[in-house]
Specification:
This protein has one domain. It contains 5 helices and no strands.
Protein backbone atom coordinates (compact mmCIF):
# COMPACT_ATOMS: atom_id res chain seq x y z
CA UNK A 1 0.00 0.00 0.00
CA UNK A 2 2.90 2.35 0.81
CA UNK A 3 4.37 1.80 -2.69
CA UNK A 4 1.04 2.55 -4.34
CA UNK A 5 0.57 5.73 -2.29
CA UNK A 6 4.13 6.89 -2.98
CA UNK A 7 3.56 6.44 -6.70
CA UNK A 8 0.15 8.11 -6.75
CA UNK A 9 1.13 11.05 -4.55
CA UNK A 10 4.44 11.46 -6.42
CA UNK A 11 2.62 11.73 -9.75
CA UNK A 12 0.06 14.16 -8.34
CA UNK A 13 2.82 16.34 -6.83
CA UNK A 14 4.84 16.26 -10.07
CA UNK A 15 1.84 17.21 -12.21
CA UNK A 16 0.81 19.94 -9.76
CA UNK A 17 4.25 21.53 -9.81
CA UNK A 18 4.42 21.31 -13.60
CA UNK A 19 0.99 22.86 -14.06
CA UNK A 20 1.66 25.63 -11.55
CA UNK A 21 5.01 26.57 -13.08
CA UNK A 22 3.62 26.45 -16.61
CA UNK A 23 0.76 28.75 -15.56
CA UNK A 24 3.36 31.10 -14.07
CA UNK A 25 5.32 30.89 -17.32
CA UNK A 26 2.26 31.82 -19.37
CA UNK A 27 1.72 34.81 -17.08
CA UNK A 28 5.34 35.97 -17.30
CA UNK A 29 5.73 35.16 -21.00
CA UNK A 30 2.29 35.35 -22.65
CA UNK A 31 1.55 33.34 -25.77
CA UNK A 32 1.43 35.62 -28.84
CA UNK A 33 -2.09 36.68 -29.85
CA UNK A 34 -1.76 34.80 -33.17
CA UNK A 35 -1.66 31.48 -31.32
CA UNK A 36 -4.78 29.77 -30.01
CA UNK A 37 -3.42 27.80 -27.01
CA UNK A 38 -6.41 25.44 -27.17
CA UNK A 39 -5.66 24.43 -30.78
CA UNK A 40 -2.74 22.07 -31.36
CA UNK A 41 -2.62 22.95 -35.06
CA UNK A 42 -2.34 26.67 -34.23
CA UNK A 43 0.54 25.93 -31.87
CA UNK A 44 2.20 23.70 -34.47
CA UNK A 45 1.99 26.35 -37.20
CA UNK A 46 3.13 29.23 -34.97
CA UNK A 47 5.73 27.51 -32.76
CA UNK A 48 8.40 29.94 -33.99
CA UNK A 49 6.43 32.84 -32.43
CA UNK A 50 6.63 31.42 -28.90
CA UNK A 51 9.27 33.29 -26.88
CA UNK A 52 12.40 31.32 -25.96
CA UNK A 53 11.89 32.29 -22.31
CA UNK A 54 8.51 30.57 -22.41
CA UNK A 55 10.08 27.36 -23.73
CA UNK A 56 12.79 27.50 -21.05
CA UNK A 57 10.05 27.89 -18.43
CA UNK A 58 8.46 24.66 -19.73
CA UNK A 59 11.76 22.82 -19.27
CA UNK A 60 12.07 24.25 -15.75
CA UNK A 61 8.49 23.16 -15.00
CA UNK A 62 9.12 19.63 -16.25
CA UNK A 63 12.40 19.37 -14.34
CA UNK A 64 11.15 20.73 -11.02
CA UNK A 65 7.92 18.76 -11.33
CA UNK A 66 9.82 15.52 -11.78
CA UNK A 67 12.19 16.39 -8.94
CA UNK A 68 9.27 17.16 -6.61
CA UNK A 69 7.43 13.97 -7.54
CA UNK A 70 10.48 11.76 -7.13
CA UNK A 71 11.48 13.34 -3.82
CA UNK A 72 7.96 12.90 -2.50
CA UNK A 73 7.83 9.25 -3.54
CA UNK A 74 11.25 8.58 -2.02
CA UNK A 75 10.18 10.15 1.29
CA UNK A 76 6.99 8.10 1.43
CA UNK A 77 8.49 4.74 0.46
CA UNK A 78 12.18 4.11 1.13
CA UNK A 79 11.93 0.32 0.84
CA UNK A 80 11.65 0.04 -2.96
CA UNK A 81 12.40 1.98 -6.14
CA UNK A 82 9.22 0.98 -7.97
CA UNK A 83 7.57 4.38 -7.42
CA UNK A 84 10.70 6.07 -8.80
CA UNK A 85 10.68 3.90 -11.92
CA UNK A 86 6.96 4.38 -12.49
CA UNK A 87 6.96 8.14 -11.95
CA UNK A 88 10.09 8.75 -14.04
CA UNK A 89 8.76 6.48 -16.79
CA UNK A 90 5.32 8.10 -16.75
CA UNK A 91 6.78 11.61 -16.96
CA UNK A 92 9.24 10.64 -19.69
CA UNK A 93 6.41 9.08 -21.66
CA UNK A 94 4.44 12.32 -21.30
CA UNK A 95 7.44 14.35 -22.43
CA UNK A 96 7.98 12.20 -25.51
CA UNK A 97 4.26 12.26 -26.35
CA UNK A 98 4.28 16.05 -26.10
CA UNK A 99 7.34 16.30 -28.34
CA UNK A 100 5.75 13.91 -30.87
CA UNK A 101 2.40 15.69 -30.97
CA UNK A 102 3.71 19.24 -31.37
CA UNK A 103 6.94 19.93 -33.25
CA UNK A 104 9.31 21.79 -30.95
CA UNK A 105 12.70 23.30 -31.71
CA UNK A 106 15.40 20.63 -31.72
CA UNK A 107 17.30 22.30 -28.87
CA UNK A 108 14.15 22.20 -26.72
CA UNK A 109 13.58 18.48 -27.32
CA UNK A 110 17.19 17.62 -26.50
CA UNK A 111 17.37 19.76 -23.35
CA UNK A 112 13.95 18.66 -22.07
CA UNK A 113 14.66 14.93 -22.45
CA UNK A 114 18.21 15.31 -21.12
CA UNK A 115 16.97 17.24 -18.06
CA UNK A 116 14.38 14.54 -17.32
CA UNK A 117 17.06 11.83 -17.55
CA UNK A 118 19.60 13.72 -15.44
CA UNK A 119 17.06 14.40 -12.69
CA UNK A 120 15.85 10.78 -12.55
CA UNK A 121 19.31 9.22 -12.71
CA UNK A 122 20.42 9.86 -9.09
CA UNK A 123 17.11 8.46 -7.81
CA UNK A 124 17.47 5.35 -9.95
CA UNK A 125 21.14 4.77 -9.10
CA UNK A 126 20.89 5.15 -5.31
CA UNK A 127 20.22 2.05 -3.26
CA UNK A 128 16.94 1.57 -1.43
CA UNK A 129 16.87 0.59 2.22
Amino acid sequence: MRTFLATLIGIVIAMGIMMGLQMLGHTLFPVPIEINPNDTESIRINMDLIPTASLIMVIVAHSLGQLGGLLTAKLIDTSTKYPIYIIAGFLMLGTVANLASIPHPVWFAIVDVLAMILIALPFVLTKSK
